[in-house]
Amino acid sequence: MVQKYQSPVRVYKHPFELVMAAYERRFPTCHLIPMFVNSDVVNEETSEDGSIHRIERRCALDVDAPRLLKRIAGVDYVYFTQKNTLNKKERTLHIESHNETFSNRVVVHETCCYSVHPENEEWTCFEQTASLDIKSFFGFESTVEKIAMKQYASSINKGKEIIEFYLKELENEGVTHVPRWSCSTISPALPEPNSLSTSPPEIQHAITPTVSASQAAETKDCAAQDAKQDNGAPQADSLAEILAGTPEDKLDADYIKRYLGDLTPLQESCLIRLRKWLQETHKGKIPKDEHILRFLRARDFNMDKAREILCQSLTWRKQHQVDYLLETWNPPQVLQDYYTGGWHHHDRDGRPLYILRLGHMDTKGLVRALGEESLLRHVLSINEEGLRRCEENTKVFGRPISCWTCLVDLEGLNMRHLWRPGVKALLRIIEVVEANYPETLGRLLILRAPRVFPVLWTLVSPFIDENTRKKFLIYAGNDYQGPGGLVDYIDKEIIPDFLGGECMCEVPEGGLVPKSMYRTAEELENEDVRLWTETIYQSASIFKGAPHELVIEIIDAASVITWDFDVCKGDIVFNIYHSKRAPQAPRKDPLGTHGITSPGVNNVQLIDKSWTLGQDYSMVASPLTCKEGESVQGSHITRWPGFYILQWKFHNMPACSATNLPRVDDVLATLQVSSHKCKVMYYTEVLGSEDFRTACCDVQSLGSMTSLESSHSGFSQLSAATTSSNHSQSSSMISR
Asked: Model pTM?
């Protein structure tokens, strides 16, 4: 398996030229990198005007590997080829390196780039990508991979420290400024390259303590003029393509440390790569970095597993409009009076603190009065509020806070709380929260656990993730009052009064829900169905040989059919057909045909097998192939009245052509659970032509809403900019 690494943007708050002077001091060897034994200059050349300097080095590394492995391999040192291209005019340094030793067994490829900060020309940015592909290594492939990743991670951590060390060394020598390259600079003749070559002469010549303002102005003007005339500088190469992207798409290392916490280099790489994948497939409609990181942590930074559960969660949020829950959910009065939970200050680590007096809660009464779905909605609103409070506390305390602490008081817990429908509702809530809010619980303090608690714990613990269970601290009786108890996690000043503290707590005391508020089973079922189906989206399953089809009757020829769908699983082909005659009554695909056991599966086929394409019905738009994980919005302006059929069809994956780099399409294909089943979630609407133009004008006046950082809760939302007001009537517009 190919291991990949992508660094965040690391910023040096020093000018590019000064950083380059520090960088050159790493050669021919560096005492700060013990494994870097030596380097020889193999080739060196400079452009006529001196603006481009290329140098190729052969570097020897003493890899920290077991002696037995070195003896089997028959080598003491591992040799790499490093090619550097310094563009003084553009102020960039491109570095590309690969291994010479065992290149037929192991392929290591690394690219780096130093460039000027896009917002501050006195700062320097550094980016780095690398890949490791171990094809075979005498049966020690796994061992070699672990050694390589460990050493590479170690060298990444030291990289910035080394540059900072040499910058400090230059400062001690009185060198605090290096003038920029100018067209008037005369480069001295380069000596013939030799073994253990020192810094390039033109860089040594350029190092001076000060530079005049007139010289700086001349340099700037001349560089601007040469940028138009000189064609010698490389305009694009493979490295530039790898490191391409706008500043807004990239993550700064300082930002990660400030808002996300201390991550290892490989953890940073997983975050950046998953974020980039979401940007490519969701076109910018991605969750915040904190939320992506939670899913990665929940799966121990296994990208494939994290990506799968994150995409499922984003689809769930969109289908049930969870992003708007804090605005739309108004808790019924019975919840406000009898739900014994609420937020209460924060713990010693700055995490929001939620208190739940479960022993005082009438779970049976709440379920009988509200139903399971209302309780679930309320718990989801609590989690959404928790995410919001984490963001606030991150700003207040000046450090990353991504989870909260929950204090559960079990005083009063008895067999009434083990009522079967109540336990069922609790398990359902745990299941939904575990799937969509991973790594949001920092610590769970369970106080005054009675004798009946082990019974409840036996019922619910199998449904709780193992990493989450490790965060549980359970105290029986008054044990929480002693050493190692509550005061270790919560400041004494905010311990609630009902736990012996002095702080008044506004959490309701609960009590029994009056039976007069109970509702019949039929009423509760209708309410649950209403809440569960309270969404504009529908789900459909698609099978090989059994597409899902939707008919839309059009009366006005100038109407506009709009759609928005997510491909939840598998790859599909989206088609639009027109027919003058009404299709047959919808027929469900027989469940047994494709091994479907769930009665909730939605698969409708409308086009009769006896119909002939081109006679009974016609295709009005080119087929669109959609990959798993993609979100598709589009519209079609109808030309004729009649019946339009939207079809989602199973896509047979063609054999991929040979390529060195895996495509996003290939990665998406690996997530498919079944090779013969797909799933989509869709919404369609028909608009009059005037309504459509009005909607387009509203969208253009509001601007694009694809930035999730400005959304209400920071998660995936539909882009408002999915339409344009200047469509031709015969065209179909699809945006992904």
From this structure: 0.70
